[in-house]
């Protein structure tokens, strides 16, 4: 590990400070402001640590933590894409891959390759670890919405059916027992809100 | 893992959302605002991941990451203690231990015990992992100060000798090669600032 490697690593660590300025749609639980992607990543890593027993298959919690610490770094270049925004998935995906190449490209080659491989594994949900990480990345904002009386669902006029459709597949796939509980919360939440309610 | 465990885990995950509201002395690198302890913890975990080769002894990077994700959670109850604040270390330490007992006590027993043990290992710098984690917890704010033209050192009128004294022991102990580079930065930084300069 040479001095040049360290210069590259510090440049990357300096650059990713900007993730603290990427603002998400979800609020903090006290509703004082919107959450940023850096603190969101920290929170998700804590979810992974505590909840790994709920993964669909056995996972390596340490890898899931790393995946989640890393998963949003591309937003430094492309911003956060709200779940309820619509938009072209393919176009977004191409931009994020470009961002990953630029950002991870700041690192020494071996770490660049490790980061890129782990990020792609997450993006493509190619493993049990990635599928669990993806599940948590949906589970946490769902919880925020439940805990804040609807949050972004109310703001964006999202219906029960849309919530099921947008959060369900990833959570059911990666953490089926967590999804079973989500279904109960959602039924109750939308029943209380009235409007489009489940059967 | 029973439903009751999950209720406790979710209560904890909900409670630690408040770490996003604990504001530190250090600014973001773009100086737009002060950093909070949740995003700081995320950033430190990335430091640990990338820089583990600079640890004084071989470390388990995954454990160091977990330690750093967890290390500031007690600030939810006691707030951030600025490095340049003075104040009684023993009193602060007692308050933090109380906070750890309350917060980790929200978790199922086994996880409570794991978290407490890891947090105490960090607090007491009892292992190579903890010593490296402690080093990074000083190294990151030092970098922020260097990158922002003095930051909290200028605000608090901190001298070269005080910086050496407050940051040096932890960084030198846990990551001696990083400290060697810090010494070069500090000499240059304080020479440019004038006033109290190194020899």
From TrEMBL, chains A, B:
HD domain: residues covered: 16-179
Pfam families: HD_3
Ranges that cross the membrane: none
Superkingdom, natural source: Bacteria
InterPro entries reported in the protein's UniProt record: HD_domain (IPR006674), YfbR/HDDC2 (IPR039356)
Alphabetically ordered keywords of this record: Hydrolase, Metal-binding
PANTHER family in UniProt: 5'-DEOXYNUCLEOTIDASE HDDC2 (PTHR11845:SF13)
Name under which the protein is recorded: HD domain-containing protein
């Amino acid at each position: 590990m040479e001095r040049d490697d360290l210069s590259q690593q510090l440049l990357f660590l300096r650059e990713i400070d900007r993730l603290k300025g990427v603002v998400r749609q979800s609020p903090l639980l006290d509703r004082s402001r919107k959450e940023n992607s850096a603190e969101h990543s920290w929170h998700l890593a804590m979810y992974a640590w505590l909840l790994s027993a709920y993964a669909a298959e056995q996972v390596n919690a340490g890898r899931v933590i790393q995946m989640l610490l890393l998963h949003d770094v591309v937003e430094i270049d492309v911003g956060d894409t709200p779940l309820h925004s619509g938009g072209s998935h393919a176009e977004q995906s191409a931009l994020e891959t470009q961002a990953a190449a630029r950002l991870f490209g700041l690192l020494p080659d071996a770490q660049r390759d490790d980061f890129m491989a782990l990020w792609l594994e997450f993006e493509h949900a190619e493993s049990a670890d990635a599928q669990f990480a993806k599940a948590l990345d949906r589970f946490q904002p769902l919880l925020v919405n439940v805990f804040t009386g609807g949050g972004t669902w109310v703001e964006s006029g999202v219906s029960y059916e849309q919530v099921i459709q947008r959060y369900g597949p990833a959570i059911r796939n990666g953490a089926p027992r967590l999804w079973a509980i989500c279904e109960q919360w959602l039924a109750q939440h939308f029943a209380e809100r009235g409007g489009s309610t489940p059967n």
